Amino acid sequence: MIMKGDFGDSISNKVYEYRVLARMSQLELAEKVGVSKQTIFVMEKGNYVPTLLLAFRIANFFKVDVDDIFTYLEGSDKNEN
């Protein structure tokens, strides 16, 4: 899943993969990290970039580093000043 930013940057995530491996529903994960089921749904679909705080909550829940779940991909069309 890849989410686009204003500068062509994106964040890919493996939330779905980690959740399925843990045999959890979206609702169960949402409750564990303090967000709605809808937030988990749109994040897994690639339509939502989580806050840094939420990214850390998710990583801590699965006992992995943030960059094991979320990957920053720098875009090639950044505005030059």
UniProtKB/TrEMBL annotation:
<dbReference type="Pfam" id="PF01381">
    <property type="entry name" value="HTH_3"/>
</dbReference>
<feature type="domain" description="HTH cro/C1-type">
    <location>
        <begin position="15"/>
        <end position="69"/>
    </location>
</feature>
<dbReference type="InterPro" id="IPR001387">
    <property type="entry name" value="Cro/C1-type_HTH"/>
</dbReference>
<dbReference type="GO" id="GO:0003677">
    <property type="term" value="F:DNA binding"/>
</dbReference>
<keyword id="KW-0238">DNA-binding</keyword>
<dbReference type="InterPro" id="IPR010982">
    <property type="entry name" value="Lambda_DNA-bd_dom_sf"/>
</dbReference>
<protein>
    <submittedName>
        <fullName>Cro/Cl family transcriptional regulator</fullName>
    </submittedName>
</protein>
